[in-house]
Fold each of these.
Amino acid sequence: MSETNNHIRILYHLARADFLERVRRYSFVLTMGISIYLGYAATTGQLEMRVGDSRGVFNSAWIGGLMALVCSTFLSLAGFYVVKNTIERDRLTRVGEILASTPMSKTLYVMGKVLSNFMVLAAMVVILAISGIIMQVWHAEAPRVNLWKLSGPFLLIVLPAMALVAAVAVLFETIPALRGGFGNVLYFFVWSVALATPVIASENNRSSLFDWAGLSVIWSSIGAAAKLPANQFSFSLSVGSRNLAQGGPTFQWNGVQWTAELILARLSWIALALALALLAALLFDRFDPSKERSRRVASASAPALVPAKVAENLSLERTWIHAPPLTRLANRQNHFRFGAILLAELRLMLKGQKWWWYAVAAGFIVACAATPSASARGMLLACAWFWPVLIWSKMGVRETRDQTSQLIFSAPHPIARQLPAVWLAGVGLALLTGSGFGGRLLFTGNWRGLLAWLIGALFIPTLALTLGIWSGSSKLFEIVYTLLWYVGPMHATLQLDFMGSAPGTEVTRVPTFYLACAAAMAAIAILGRKRQLQT
Amino acid sequence: MKLAIDGVSKQYAKKFWGLRDLRLELGPGVVGLLGPNGAGKSTLMRILATVTRATEGRVLWNGHDISRSPDTLRAVLGYLPQDFGVYPHLTALEFLEYMAAVKGLDARSARQRIDELLAVVNLAEARDRSLGGFSGGMKQRVGIAQALLNDPEVLIVDEPTAGLDPEERARFRNLLSELSGERIVIFSTHIVSDIEAIATDIAILSGGRLLAHGAPEDLLRAVEGKVWEMVIPSAEMSAAKQKFLVSTSVRRTDGVHVRIVAAESPGTGAVPATPTLEDAYLHCISSQRTSAAT
């Protein structure tokens, strides 16, 4: 019994310390700000839920359902990126190595981290729940607040979904391949598919076993209340500026009838979260650097840290007496060559890429140049410019991440020389990887198309550099760019076609807009770097 | 060649100052910056290296205010921070080539200089290996090499011997001594023996303030006649530490041989000893603490 108590105490302190460390950071304030904005958007009608042309009366059940869907959809995406850094922080601060030397088990550590993730996500959910109460009072259509009907969807739909997100975030951190940028990008696609699966099943009048976000629980109940024929039933949760109070007919929905079976189904997601946490504990390397892949590669190619010959040179006599003299530089004047620093940045950017990365990039170039269909070519350009996302995401971040900022920023003209070199290296990469598409435009004399493509090549690295400098992390660009890329070029959404990849974009004002964005972001990046230099 | 620190202060929080009204004038030679942890050494180093701006006061390099025109100093600066990283996927050679480009060295000079520096820091054999596989001491040596790339007129090294083994430390001290002739070398440490043999000037910081500045001889003169050696029984050691400023103590068969810094003889059997820089440093820090307490 005392051992169990001890475990609970350790778990509590692990989660508490981690939670406090997070909530005292500015990023947490920003996260809370986003939650408050979502609550505000729902209250003022910018976020709305509709069934066909109708909406429910603003009673506690409807508002609880709306807010629960907002949490399940938006927070399950944004929340993942907010919490997916808990083990990484212990790794970076080296606290992990101290923890690893204690008797604490891997399972306990991972469970503590999942619990802390869950607490952070739950704090965001609480903000939205409070917004729900404000929303009901604001609209005053059904002034009596029924706490159970309002909070039920949060407790039984949102919290199990958040437990799952908390566990998946830790699982990603314990798998070396998913720990970094690749995991960030992959989660977006996993999330899209996982969210869409029950939606597609529901559209085909089938229930889905994979409704982890609880979407179908709410809309099947709403569908029944709206009394719409199955073929006319359409459900939407949209972000816009429609005025809810005036929009269309209303109907009464009194909330989900929580049966034991339904509750059990929802609680099973918590069980799955626990199972994933146990899997994460199994995979967790306990901060053993020898288990890191890069270390394995390094040690495989170099058997000892100090080769025998070097070790020999360290002998007292040789190091003291035969140390070679250091001659003075003949010319100590600076001979700044922009080409040299640009090449150095480009090499730094591409260093460590495997041969297959180049092979795929080359494949996209050839495919872009050879594909006759303009639409298909556009899709291929989108793919070609998604391929280097993890390289671009390190722009503006590398100095902070690798702790070289003091070395770089104490060199002459860090803003006038090194920063443009980083940016141009990123632009060069875009031009190179998109050259199949650009070459074709050049060959066919499509000058406006070429200009739109060029603007795309300027926009992407500028976005990466700006977000990297201001956030100090690769993550923000990876998320924002993936989202933009998916909604924009991949779905040929004109307003978001920053690449100029879709046929016809070049004759619109869209490229000019993204050129202006790139210019503004470049200015913001310079300001950010100036701020870094003046701390 | 003159680096003047004119009333420099750095405020970190509303009531916390990392540095207060520091005034120093530095010329060619090795300046040893001594002080306990948290004295403000690294803050001063970062300000001098143009990485951080002073809240008050100014730093003048040959008459130019470095907060207004930092590049006048950066062009001739070599800086080794206390905590720094390297790009793990680059080799030592590639990293130094990158830093040479950033510092504006021409290709030929850079190649020649990098070859020499890799030999000087004993990494010639490891030049083509990824930095990710380097030990802490080897990374530190890469840091030393990058600081010397542009043959700097001002070399700022913050705790440079941390992580180096005894031979490497000795080698680095010798290197700095050789380099010091026509440049300003600022060497921050809390290990007195690191600068004892090479510093031409010593500045002692504590609590963000400058306690003393002068030639080592001047500091030693201040404790002349105040250092004593005596042998005391082990049982009395604790009481002696409470009563006197004990500089060193060594256990022997006849008792504990202690070195005490005191204005007057600490007791019977105490004999005057020749002061060392460590005695002078401890005396300086202890005097400041005593005056702050009263």
Amino acid sequence: MERKHIIKEIFNMAKRDFTLTFSLAIILILIIFSIFPQYIAKYDFYDVDLSLRLNPPSLDYPFGTDFLGRDILSMIIWGSRIALIITIWPTLISATIGVAIGILSGYVGGVFDDIVMRGVDILMSFPSLLLALGIISVLGPGITNAMIAVTIGRISSYVRLSRSLTFSVKETGFVEYAKALGASRTRIMLRYIFPNVLTPIIVQITFSMPGTLLNVASLSFLGLGGKPPTPDWGVLMQQSRIYLLYAPWAAIIPGIAIFLVAFSFNTIGEALRDIVDPRRKYIRMV
Amino acid sequence: MWKYILKRLGYFIPTIVGVSIITFTLVRLIPGDPVEIVLGQHATAEVVDIYRRQLGLDRPIYIQYIIWLKRMIRGDWGVSMISNAKVTYLIFHRFMYTVQLAIFSMAIVSSIGLLFGVIAAYKVGSKIDKGLRFLSIFGWSIPSFLAGLVFIYIFALRLKLFPAIGAGEIKHLILPAFTLSTWGVSYIGRMTRGSLLEIVGQDFVTTAQAKGLTRKRIWLKHILRNGLLPVVTMLGMQFGWFLGGSFIVETIFSFPGIGFLTTTSVLNRDYTVVQGAILFIAIIYCTTNLVVDILYAFLDPRIRYEKRV
């Protein structure tokens, strides 16, 4: 299937599938929130008012307030940019590095391929969050370091996928022709192999997003990622956790926000997969 | 068969060596001089020098690795920088709790997950199938820290049915195990459904239909027997995940397992414990995968009879 038809096809599917429409809407809202939080959020995220602490949901504060009297809804809106950043950057960077290594390894083959695959096997023998914890103990806590840690853990799945795709593309006629015409290795990889492995990789990227978000948010929740007073959703949950009995909304609403975004990326990923190639199995990491 | 097992073992050992190299590298990369951390900033240069030589830190890096590896193989994993307890003791003690939680969660995942998967595949395309598909994406996307907090709020704080923290009795396992299983049930459910439907499309099922067997019989005799085989691998891998300790769930429930030990040690910068925990969890994880692969070889006649065919 050609790539420009994919978007059209997604919207066609959305007409029939309510869950997909809902998911597309959630992602759209997330993007709008993250571009213009200042026009949408009613309050600033450092608007501390202790007289309002742990207020239940009301008209003024639709999702209630947290232990510093900050409006939860406004915090969610301010935090959506962070949510988008921590989802997109680790995914894109790990995909870029992984695909580059994967194509090179699949095309060059030989000893290089063996070494790469051994490395991937070793990296994959760590549960993803464990590797992230190890890397954070080296780099120290912080949102950037949490993103780096998650990025490193996610490279290997892209290496595997793009390598196996390269193997199948390598044997097709047009690569042979290009070689016969004297195209250089770099040119073959960039102009002939890369465009032909891209579609499944885009699906894998979509599938990988919820896992990335959950991993970085988990690290923030553990106190190893973002630091207060940033309105990172994971940080909000971590801070409000101890008030669970008195103000469940303060901890649970940011969690629901994370869930909705993860859920939407998953639904869109499923739809993309159904359109592009229903048979291939993608690696989903959580 | 034996060839397959040997090959798989030959795969296992380099992986473990690689895992140990990564763990060693990570610990060496931690900023700060280990000698200074142990002796404090006011130690004289001479003392520092002696200590450094004692630890072998003046030797080239690969010799340091070999010294370190020998020590780890001997079982000398050092002592915790915070509590001074032996790291091996800490890990073993905490691991026992994680094993309890893992077994309990596994029971939930394998029963409910398999049931959902089989029902969804048997009723493929129906309302039930669609509902289960929705539920599985739902369970897949729910962060364990959200599920954990919601369970604590409802079942521990409001209804007061189960304790939110602690360990040692069955009642302590219930909430963490269900939190841990939300993801596993969705995963196993989906995989079971997919694996069964793959079998449905195969020729021998058409043959069975042509023979005039009833649908129930085809499912029991042909589809389930073949389709559940790959699920065994997935269940095994899931068990490996659980045995590695779940960092989030154990932390939320203050459950004293290996995952909680790891997160607290990272937060406290207790590097000897972090090193031990990373190495231990990775080894457990690789070993479970090895056992699962070998088990699968025994279960799958295509591998079992490989030599004779």
Amino acid sequence: MKILFFLWISVFNYIFYDLYLSIVSFLLVLTLATLARIHRFVLTILGVIVLPIIALGVLVIGGPFGFPHNETPLLAFDLFGFKVGLFLEGTVYVSTWTARLAVTITSALIAYLTTHPSDLAAIMLKSRIPYKFAYAFLATIQLIPILTNEISTIYQAQVSRGLNVKAKLIQRFKSIIVLIIPLTLGAINQTQIRAIALESRGFSAPVKKVMLRDPRLKTIDYLSLLLMAAGTIFFIYLIMTRGLVPFIQGVRYIQPGG
Amino acid sequence: MSAETGKIEPAAVVKPSGFVILQIVLIPVIAALNYVTGVIINILKLPLFMDTWATMFGTVVAGLWVGAAGGFLYNIVMAFTVWGLPAWVWGFINIYIAIITWVFWRIGWVTVKKPVKLLVAGILVGVTNVAPVTAISWLVFGLLPTYAGTAPIYAAILATTNSMLWASVGSSIIAEIPDKLISLILAAVVASRMPARFTLGGRPS
């Protein structure tokens, strides 16, 4: 259900070109993240990914030369005959795109961080996703922290052998080799062991796969489904009556690609 | 171990029974390597992405579909976790990278034994990659600058041309060519250090 919610809210955020709608959606998913007690992690991720994009975007696109439709001064002033500062059109354009991004990231993190990996595997198999793809997806999620820990160990070992991460640019490029080769060889070496382990558990056996966990829909899931259905009807009504920009009016930015 | 001679046989895996399993197990490794490279780049404070080198590497050591699947999966996982849903479309770039790497590898250009050809291949991968990157940037991200490293170039081209499209193309050229060139060199270097038993994709003719 959480995955369905993530897809649902992301799709509607990308259908509409409305900053207000994206902000409301973002507040909704942030509230859900707070209820799930993952808001700190979510905000950290957003700080790393979304904040630089909005900061860069507003400075570049919101500036006087940034966006072809920039005409309404927001925080602009005259300097030697030139208009300097931020303009409404570019700023709203950037804010809309980054708000959409924030909504999808937050809803994805809610779905991912609050779902048990075994449940995720069971859901994927129930959704008729090939089990080989399900394995690859889940194995990647499990491998990322393992390899991240491994690179930390390799890094410390190489630093103790004299690796200088504050060297000149060319030297730092060369340093990639001494970090990546041991990491890759270690990871590749483990694939053989993993392949044997999988095969011994009948991974490629021509039989129907069964899971230990069997996630089923609960009352809250049905309620969520009902709310999403109601939301879908409301959104369709909005599109039919007010178009793809139902709330924010008078800003020329509603064109993909500017 | 050979029963007849008592010598240790070379462990080259040509087409073992678990060949497909090995390829499937390699896919998440490639995806995870793409991710961890981002961590390394962060540690070394390098001005590149380098998140396609493992796709190239996977294509060279295990074949086209393993590299493409690993690269695509990397983008899927990132889209479902930290990048946000629309980012899954970057997966097509990884598929493109796998295809073009495979082509260059088949004609024998992706090898440290031929550094000039490797260099040319890397530049060509970067140059041709600008078109799909710009297309995705236009369709999905509204041609916004999403990378701090090229934002000043983006702003400068935008100020000159007043076109977000040209700004995006220009900043892509600046970012893509060195990134893909170094990624391909790295993939070739690491592949050259791989034991033969893990080279599932065979050798170029």
